[in-house]
TrEMBL record:
Record protein name field: 3-ketosteroid 9-alpha-monooxygenase
Residues annotated as signal peptide: none
Residue ranges occupied by any 2Fe-2S ferredoxin-type domain in the UniProt entry: 268-359
Known cofactor(s): FAD; [2Fe-2S] cluster
Pfam families according to UniProt: FAD_binding_6, Fer2, NAD_binding_1
Keyword Amino-acid biosynthesis in record: no
UniProt KW keywords: 2Fe-2S, FAD, Flavoprotein, Iron, Iron-sulfur, Metal-binding, Monooxygenase, Oxidoreductase
Transmembrane segments: none
FAD-binding FR-type domain sequence ranges: 3-107
UniProt keyword Oxidoreductase present: yes
GO molecular function term, any single one: monooxygenase activity
InterPro entries with a match to the protein in the record: 2Fe-2S_ferredoxin-like_sf, 2Fe-2S_ferredoxin-type, Beta-grasp_dom_sf, Cbr1-like_FAD-bd_dom, FAD-bd_FR_type, Flavoprot_Pyr_Nucl_cyt_Rdtase, FNR_nucleotide-bd, MRET
């Protein structure tokens, strides 16, 4: 189902750390089905800030069966939306919130042993995954390795301690701090290859025995952890990761290729199929992606990050050809099947049809 925005009301705001808040949204009964989520998925929040349409994706931290939906937001330096959330939002305010999306999900009932490795605000989807697994399956065991600078920067610290006390036989919580000494030396420093190896050697974690390993946090941490785990023999398909990115992406925009430029200069007839309706427009600027060209023609296509990471704008090339600038989310089989990301796609043919309804 194509993600859609609805107006939700903020029901609660909780300060987690000096620079992070948990924001909860009330759900009316008629929207509960639309906002049914899988543990690990995210919501895209949308508001007009400084006269601009600004969107940011934040993972759901609530467990399955919750009354309200909660996301954790950490304020970042020069962060447009995070600063807006920290300074301007209050209980009772309304925001446009997209229905849940994302592939970073855990299978309740099929995941008996889960290893979660997070750093900083990467804890947000792990809260939902951990609690949903523990509450949804009496046989599930969860180990969470969580990296932060110091105790005062730990998001959801009270909730994590409560979860540990509640499921003391099935939930293992390991805090790694980089700027605050702990009594056990292995718990000091950053989550890197050496730290993961040390945790394995001491028996604190057993990634090869896990049904799934989930990684979330800074891109560098995820890449180092993924390579380290695969080097230890953890199967590639058992490792799941979530990348966060600002709306304008993490890499500079690539210049159009020769094929992209030639196609645009002749004028590309683009058709998009969305919710059973076909709309068309002409793309004539080689710098524009399909998403940007559609917006110029008043056509709203689904998107969240604009960085090639979230997969919200995933669609299938039904006719013509195109090239992506970057891709951090589509699997190889999807690319082979003709899927692309509208936020990164520029045509290389005189006609292009993209089907957003194709699964």
């Amino acid at each position: 189902m194509t993600p859609k925005f609805h107006t939700l009301t903020i029901s609660k705001i909780e300060e987690l750390t000096p620079d992070a808040k948990a924001i909860s949204f009330a759900l009316n009964d008629d929207l509960r089905d639309a906002y049914a989520f899988k543990p690990g998925q995210y919501l895209t929040l949308r508001s007009t800030i400084g006269g601009k349409d600004v969107r940011r994706s934040y993972s759901v931290s609530s467990p399955l069966g919750c009354t309200d939906l909660t996301v954790g937001i950490r304020r970042v330096e020069d962060g447009v939306f995070s600063s807006f959330a920290a300074n301007d939002l209050k209980v009772g305010d309304q925001l446009e919130v997209m229905t849940p999306d994302g592939r970073f999900v855990a299978d309740i009932g099929g995941m008996k042993n889960a290893l979660l490795i997070a750093a900083g605000s990467g804890i947000t989807p792990m809260m939902s995954i951990a609690q949903s697994l523990l509450e949804g399956d009496d046989e599930a065991e969860v180990t969470l390795v969580y990296g932060n600078r110091e105790t005062g920067t730990i998001m959801f610290r009270e909730q994590l301690e409560f979860l540990k006390d509640r499921f003391m036989d099935r939930f293992t919580l390991i805090h790694i701090l980089s700027r605050e000494d702990q009594d056990v030396p292995i718990l000091n420093g950053r989550i890197d290859a050496d730290k993961i190896k040390a945790l394995v050697n001491t028996g604190a974690i057993a990634p090869k025995a896990a049904d799934g390993v989930f990684l979330c946090g800074p891109g560098e941490m995820i890449e180092v952890a993924r390579e380290s785990l695969e080097g230890m023999g953890v199967a590639h398909d058992k490792i799941h990761y979530e990348l966060f990115t600002p709306a304008d992406g993490q890499t500079p925009r690539k210049a159009p290729t020769k094929a992209q430029r030639e196609a645009a200069e002749q004028g590309v007839k683009v058709e998009v199929v969305l919710d059973g309706t076909t709309r068309s427009f002409t793309l004539s600027d080689p710098e524009d992606t399909v998403l940007e060209a559609a917006h110029k023609h008043g056509l709203e296509l689904p998107f969240s990050c604009k960085g090639g990471m979230c997969c919200t704008c995933r669609c299938k090339v039904a006719k013509g050809s195109a090239e992506m600038d970057v891709n951090y989310s589509l699997e190889p089989w999807e690319i082979e099947a003709g899927f692309t990301l509208a936020c990164q796609t520029r045509p290389t043919s005189d006609e292009l049809t993209l089907d957003f309804d194709e699964s």
